[in-house]
Write a structure and sequence with these properties.
Length: about 425
């Protein structure tokens, strides 16, 4: 008995004295859904090692792309609530570098899969039969989320998603249950309101668009004589100028936004962004010395065309139907104009008051110099030359809440200054 006890004690002591093995967390798969009017796009992000182990196909892309596509088509099986199978179209897979929390860097296969119901099918309620990887690697999980759903008012530009479920093996039955996707009832009104909010946020976060308009308005209360800003235009004349410049800019970017979006014109982003930065630089130079006195509205309208093309990039990536796009244009543009009108209204008292201050030339030239420096930084950055000036300008512009606070304080101070000046003039 003593010998038996000793034999049993040895492995027990070894077990108790051994250091616990460090479990290395494995990356999970991600399926991101973009819900369109007649189809759903599923963006798959699959750990390359697990995919190779489950499929038996080496992820040697693009040489093995056709085999990977066939494997995915066989393991992604959506169906409507009535059980009718959907069509599955697998795009070209790409091998990319990735990293998830606590996993460390690894390679993943990224591919878009188009899920299309039969004609008239409901894209908002379906089941997703999906057992990519998990049918072989039983510890694997897949996170399913929705990124874009226009009819539900879910429109994101930063990649935010809303999780709708997790696909994993059922340990009791050792099967992979289908995921029921229920996106609720969508409506055009929700889509319209979402685009209205997006338009407002776009102009608030579009530092370059706001800076162009404000720098063009800065000398509006002044009169140009002999190549210099010298006299005051008077309150009514100044307000008419500011209103004309704002209206022309609105018409210019609205026309370009509508035409480029409805015609679905694919415009290279870099030339448009460089054009916008150049427009700011020209506006800053005009604030120092009048380059086109009396024609500010015309210039605002022409440059507004370029700014409108930049706005259209937001709509281009949403893949909306013609009906959805029309409502989105209305909501998006209305959101831009409402916020733009608010910002100009806040800036108006300060602009009128600033023109009457003795230090006006210094403030105007200083503001134009800072704006011009930011514009040069943006031009270089958008030509492929990163620089701290552009990074600083972007960082400052990202805090639009602080900008609104500053404009509100300036509006109050400007209005108070104008009231005091008005009382002194009538006394």
């Amino acid at each position: 008995m003593r010998r038996i006890a000793a034999l049993l004690a040895v492995p027990l002591l070894v077990f108790l004295g051994a250091k616990p093995a460090a479990a290395h967390p494995m990356p999970h798969s991600v399926v991101v859904l973009d819900v369109h009017e007649t189809s759903v796009t599923a963006s798959l992000e699959l750990p390359a090692g697990d995919l190779a182990a489950a499929s038996g196909i080496a992820t040697d892309l693009p040489a093995r792309a056709a085999e990977v596509q066939a494997y995915l088509a066989a393991h992604v099986r959506p169906a409507g609530a009535d059980g009718a199978a959907w069509a599955v179209t697998v795009g070209d897979p790409e091998l990319t570098a990735a990293e998830q929390t606590a996993t460390g860097p690894y390679q993943e296969v990224a591919v878009e899969v188009e899920l299309t119901p039969p004609t008239g099918g409901d894209v908002r309620h379906f089941t997703l039969g999906y057992d990519v990887i998990v049918h072989k690697v039983v510890t694997h999980t897949t996170l399913v989320s929705v990124r874009q759903d226009w009819a539900a008012g879910q429109i994101t530009e930063g990649g935010e998603t809303e999780q709708v479920g997790v696909i994993a093996i059922d340990n009791r039955t050792m099967t992979v249950p289908q995921l029921t996707v229920d996106l609720g009832a969508g409506s055009s009104w929700r889509g319209f309101l979402a685009m209205l909010r997006l338009g407002g946020l776009h102009i608030l976060e579009g530092t370059d668009h706001l800076l162009f308009l404000l720098i063009l308005l800065l000398p509006a209360p002044l009169i140009a004589r002999r190549g210099r800003w010298t006299g005051l235009a008077g309150p009514r004349r100044a307000v008419r100028r500011i209103g004309g410049i704002t209206l022309a800019f609105t018409l210019g970017h609205s026309a370009a936004l509508v035409l480029s979006a409805l015609a679905r014109v694919e415009i290279p982003a870099r030339p448009v962004e460089v054009f916008i930065a150049m427009s700011i630089l020209i506006g800053a130079a005009h604030a120092v010395r009048p380059l086109f006195p009396g024609r500010e509205a015309l210039v605002a309208g022409l440059f507004g065309l370029g700014h409108g093309m930049a706005f259209s990039f937001t709509l281009a990536g949403l893949r909306l139907s013609t009906g959805q796009l029309t409502l989105s244009l209305l909501g998006f543009n209305l959101g831009i104009e409402l916020v733009q009108l608010l910002l100009v209204a806040l800036a108006l008292p300060a602009l009128l008051a600033l023109a009457r201050l003795p230090v006006q030339p210094w403030l105007r030239i200083g503001g134009a110099a800072l704006t011009g420096a930011a514009a040069v930084g943006w031009v270089l950055d958008r030509l492929g030359v990163p620089n701290p000036v552009a990074e600083t300008a972007d960082a400052i512009g990202a805090d639009y809440q602080a900008m609104l606070v500053v404009l509100t304080i300036m509006a109050a101070a400007g209005a108070g200054r104008l009231m005091i000046a008005g009382k002194a003039a009538t006394a």
